[in-house]
C-alpha cells in the first residue's frame, strides 16, 4: 500500500479502511476520504485447510471449550476456542467465522452482546448456537434466551450438549453432509 492519495492523483486501485479492515477497489476518479494508493495486490492460493468451515467456540470454562474444539476438529471443521468475550470480540474484527458456538453465561453477563456483534460482523448470517446448563438452576433466564432466539435467529442447546447432534445441526446449517 502506498501513501495517502493527493488531489488529482489517478491510481488504478485504492485502499480505504472500513470497520478496521482495508478494502481495495478500482479508482473511479473521485478522491475519497483517507484513501491510499495500492502498489501491489497479491492473491495467495487456497490451502486445503481453508476449505474447512471456521467455527468459533466461546466458553469461559476452558475444559468445555477445549472439548468442543477438539470434537469439531475431529469432525472436519477448523475450530478456534475463546475463553472470554474480549478475545472473541477482538478476533471478530479480523476473522470471519462460518458459525459460532457460545455459552450463554459468563459470570454475571450473558452473551447477548457478543451475539449482536456476530450479527453486525462480516458474516451476519453465520449460524449461532447458544449453550447453557443453567436453566434448571435459575441462573439463566428462559425469557432472555427466548428473546435472543427470536431477535437473532440462534439455536439453543442445553448442557451437556450432545456433540453429535450439535455437529449434525451445524453441518446441516452450513449445508455439509
Overview of the molecule:
The protein has 5 helices and 10 strands; from the N terminus they run ββββαβαβββαβαβα. With 177 residues, the chain is an alpha/beta fold. The strands form 3 sheets. A 5-stranded parallel beta sheet has the order 5-4-6-9-10. Strands 2-1-3 form a 3-stranded antiparallel beta sheet, with no helix packed on it. Strands 7-8 form a two-stranded antiparallel ribbon. Strand 9, helix 4 (142-152) and strand 10 form a beta-alpha-beta unit. The longest helix is centred in the middle third of the chain and has 13 residues, at 62-74. The chain is elongated. 25% of the residues are buried.
Structural class: alpha/beta
CATH homology-level superfamily of the largest domain: Response regulator
Q: Please identify, by name, the CATH architecture of the largest domain.
A: 3-Layer(aba) Sandwich
Strand residues, percent: 15-25%
Oligomer: single chain
What would you call the shape?
Answer: elongated
Radius of gyration: 20 Å
CATH class of the largest domain: Alpha Beta
Low-confidence region ranges:
none
Please tell me the overall pLDDT: 87
Domain unit count: 2
Per DSSP, the total helix count is 5
Tell me the CATH topology of the largest domain: Rossmann fold
Order of helices and strands: EEEEHEHEEEHEHEH
Helix % is 25-40%
Spatial sequence of strands, sheet with the most strands: 5-4-6-9-10
Amino acid at each position: 500500500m502506498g501513501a495517502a492519495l493527493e488531489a488529482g492523483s489517478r491510481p488504478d486501485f485504492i485502499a480505504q479502511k472500513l470497520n478496521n479492515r482495508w478494502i481495495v477497489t478500482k479508482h473511479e476518479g473521485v478522491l475519497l476520504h483517507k484513501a491510499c494508493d495500492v502498489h501491489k495486490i497479491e492473491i495467495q492460493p487456497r490451502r486445503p485447510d481453508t476449505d474447512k468451515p471456521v467455527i468459533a467456540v466461546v466458553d469461559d470454562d476452558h475444559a468445555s471449550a477445549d472439548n468442543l474444539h477438539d470434537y469439531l476438529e475431529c469432525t472436519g471443521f477448523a475450530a478456534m476456542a475463546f475463553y472470554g468475550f474480549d478475545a472473541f470480540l477482538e478476533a471478530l474484527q479480523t476473522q470471519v467465522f462460518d458459525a459460532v458456538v457460545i455459552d450463554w453465561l459468563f459470570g454475571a453477563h450473558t452473551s447477548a452482546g457478543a451475539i449482536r456483534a456476530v450479527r453486525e460482523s462480516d458474516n451476519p448470517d453465520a449460524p449461532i448456537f447458544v449453550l447453557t446448563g443453567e436453566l434448571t438452576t435459575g441462573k439463566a433466564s428462559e425469557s432472555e434466551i427466548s428473546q435472543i432466539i427470536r431477535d437473532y435467529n440462534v439455536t439453543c442447546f442445553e448442557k451437556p450438549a450432545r456433540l453429535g447432534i450439535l455437529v449434525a445441526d451445524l453441518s446441516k446449517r452450513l449445508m455439509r453432509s
